[in-house]
Amino acid sequence: MNSEARKTVHTDLRGWLSHLSATDRLAVIKPGAALEHELVAIAKLLDGRQAAYFPQPDGHSIPVVSGFMARRSWIAEAMGVSESELLATFRAAAEQPLPSQLVPQAEASCQQVVHRQPDVRAVLPVPTHSEHDNGPYITAGMVIARNPATGVQNVSINRIQVHGKDRMAILMLPRHLYAFYKEAQRRGEDLPIAIVIGADPLTLLASQAITQIDYDELEIAGSLHGSPLRVAQCLTNNVHVPADAEIVIEGRILCDEREMEGPFGEFPRYYSAREQREVIAVDVITHRQAPIFHTIVPAEMEHLLLGSIPREATLLAHLQRSFPNVLDVHLSIGGVGRYHLYVKLRKTHEGQPKNVILCAFGAHYDIKKVIVVDEDVEVHDPQQVEWAVATRFQADRDMVVISGAQGSALDPSTTVGAGDGVAPVHEQGLSAKLGLDATRPVVYHEHTFTRVRVPGEDSIDLTAWIEPGRRVDFTSLAQS
């Protein structure tokens, strides 16, 4: 869908928060909520119903916001499309990126205030989230770095534990940022980075796109915006950041230092292990006048949806290259928006669903279970998917099991059998994969697999038939 055909596209964080507030989807919290647990507990209780805005958390002068992307319908609304157009719109943006527009520092809102030699703990209101978290964490920070070999940027969201005034530890999974770090390490260099906190909703969503290496997600953000994203160069390195972001932390991932990080409550709703992690040295913090700090409550809807929707768009595109009759996909929330994939297929040949299952497993190593259903099943409705499994699946002929495959290192079930210690990196995330073909036969006898429907049920307007305000006094009805 081109930008002219779209409704209002929300390209500004403050404008989006104002819109949520005007439509009763933002709760303003009384001053004083403690940064340790209490703030996050309040945000968690509101998750998916209202964003939470804390004007003065724990007496801090910088407000905190959470949960402003906590419903699928809100994300579609921010993009200016319907929910049914969500994946296609994101996919089109990923396939047609727009180069960013570099602006001078004087025009960069994110550099209006500069803190040199900063104390992160004093400057920013960083919350402590879950019960056993090992201290305060930045959970909504977009980490931006350049490939030392090519100069192309990458954007990702990584959990970052604040250790001291200018030192933090970061978890990097074996993806693009980690590849950049290993290349810098091979050269004996630190990796310059920027951590962006408080981006607009579409840039935040774009940061989670699943792309090949050397593909700048900020250019996807520009495409979602409908115009090039304004970016500014950092003050201490050559990384480009969204010019209108709220807060930017500039620093370096140190070449040869490690510190203990974790435990931390992650998206599978379990704690990840305490391990030696790479260290970030903080050089400068810049921010807007009166900035807003964004925190994501781990494992709640904002966290799960920001990860799942870009993945769905990528998975759908990947599957449709080999199977044009794949109609839709959904990463279920019950599968933490990562592990369980539902695929809607217009089946044309027996055995085809199993090919689709195998293709899906190859598309992303996080996927642990794939269920393929027919075109009459709504993949975004878990109850319909379960009905399809209950009535169209037989385990002895319709199940695919693959042992010893690469899976998610954050899935705690993959650590079973590893003993008390932490498995070496090359063995972490070893997982089994499960595929279920819950489709009906292409040809079947009479109405054996015909879904029961009542004529007119999809077109009847109930409001035209129900008499508003009408009451019946059943005690006065004539006795038979």
What portion of the residues fall into strands of 2 or more residues?
15-25%
Using DSSP, what is the number of strands? Answer: 23
Q: Report the CATH superfamily of the largest domain.
A: Electron Transport, Fmn-binding Protein, Chain A
Low-confidence stretches: none
Q: In the CATH classification, which architecture of the largest domain applies?
A: Roll
Task: Enumerate how many helices there are, as a single number.
Answer: 13
The coarse silhouette is globular
CATH class of the largest domain: Mainly Beta
Structure classification: alpha+beta
What is the distance, rounded to the nearest whole angstrom, between the alpha carbons of the first and last residues?
Answer: 62 Å
Global mean pLDDT: 92
Main pleated-sheet profile: 9 strands, antiparallel
Work out the radius of gyration: 24 Å
Tally the structural domains: 2
- CATH topology name of the largest domain: Pnp Oxidase, Chain A
Helix content: 25-40%
Domain 3-octaprenyl-4-hydroxybenzoate carboxy-lyase-like C-terminal: 306-438
Pfam family, one: UbiD
GO cellular component, one term: cytosol
GO molecular function, one term: 4-hydroxy-3-polyprenylbenzoate decarboxylase activity
